[in-house]
Automatic annotation (TrEMBL):
<feature type="compositionally biased region" description="Basic and acidic residues">
    <location>
        <begin position="176"/>
        <end position="186"/>
    </location>
</feature>
<keyword id="KW-0804">Transcription</keyword>
<keyword id="KW-0539">Nucleus</keyword>
<dbReference type="GO" id="GO:0005634">
    <property type="term" value="C:nucleus"/>
</dbReference>
<dbReference type="InterPro" id="IPR009072">
    <property type="entry name" value="Histone-fold"/>
</dbReference>
<protein>
    <recommendedName>
        <fullName>Bromodomain associated domain-containing protein</fullName>
    </recommendedName>
</protein>
<feature type="domain" description="Bromodomain associated">
    <location>
        <begin position="5"/>
        <end position="82"/>
    </location>
</feature>
<dbReference type="InterPro" id="IPR006565">
    <property type="entry name" value="BTP"/>
</dbReference>
<feature type="compositionally biased region" description="Polar residues">
    <location>
        <begin position="187"/>
        <end position="198"/>
    </location>
</feature>
<dbReference type="Pfam" id="PF07524">
    <property type="entry name" value="Bromo_TP"/>
</dbReference>
<keyword id="KW-0805">Transcription regulation</keyword>
<dbReference type="GO" id="GO:0046982">
    <property type="term" value="F:protein heterodimerization activity"/>
</dbReference>
<feature type="region of interest" description="Disordered">
    <location>
        <begin position="176"/>
        <end position="200"/>
    </location>
</feature>
């Protein structure tokens, strides 16, 4: 039985082949293809880790937003070039060159060529065609809840043997409680109060 890592590598390999073919490459060695596939997998893994980290810092729930993905892409160098945050805040203008460049690539001719090559045979991607080839019943139920099929409905994982009853409740308790900063009088108020006390002392002193 193939390991999850080998399965993911096998699924990503044809995608890398389509990208290389769209870029103008017509042949490559198997070792080179495996290396590029491994680099692509590692990059996506780092991107997913960074997205999860930003989601954990930005909001209390477990859902990932587009802002989390964008910040992760900035960390991984996918949205370049970009000015420093301090410079953007100083001029009061957000630098959108990285986002605009990424959108131009995603909607441009380069990505269009990748999609054309990937969907060349009958307008279906290779994975859908492969599933239809090996599935004689034309049913997707055998892949339901797996990596190759529709995701299963989310179920609450119950925890027994303690006061915490679910994973979500445990995650909520693990969230750090924000510290409340007590309001203190400003320096000007404190200095004025000290000045008034000093004036009273000076009036009561005998010279």
């Amino acid at each position: 039985m193939a390991t999850p890592q080998a399965l993911h590598h096998a699924l990503l390999r044809p995608c890398v082949l389509h990208i290389l073919r769209a870029a103008g490459y017509h042949s490559t060695r198997s070792s080179v293809l495996d290396t590029i596939t491994d680099l692509a997998a590692r990059y996506m893994y780092i991107l997913a880790q960074s997205t999860a980290a930003h989601a954990d810092l930005n909001h209390a729930d477990l859902d990932i937003t587009i802002s989390d993905v964008r910040m992760a892409m900035q960390d991984c160098g996918a949205l370049m070039p970009e000015k420093a945050i301090e410079e953007q805040e100083f001029y009061g203008e957000e630098d959108m060159r990285g986002v605009e460049g990424f959108l131009a690539w995603a909607m441009g001719e380069g990505n269009k060529e990748i999609r054309r090559i990937a969907l060349a045979d009958g307008g279906e991607d290779y994975l859908t065609a492969l599933k239809k080839k090996h599935n004689t019943t034309d049913e997707d139920s055998r892949y339901h809840g797996t990596l190759l099929g529709r995701p299963a409905e989310p179920r609450i994982v119950k925890v027994e043997g303690g006061e915490i009853t679910s994973v979500k409740e445990w995650a909520d308790r693990m969230k750090p409680i924000p510290k409340q900063i007590e309001e203190t009088p400003s320096t000007r108020e404190a200095s004025s109060a000290l000045s008034s006390v000093g004036d009273q002392v000076m009036e009561n002193m005998e010279f």
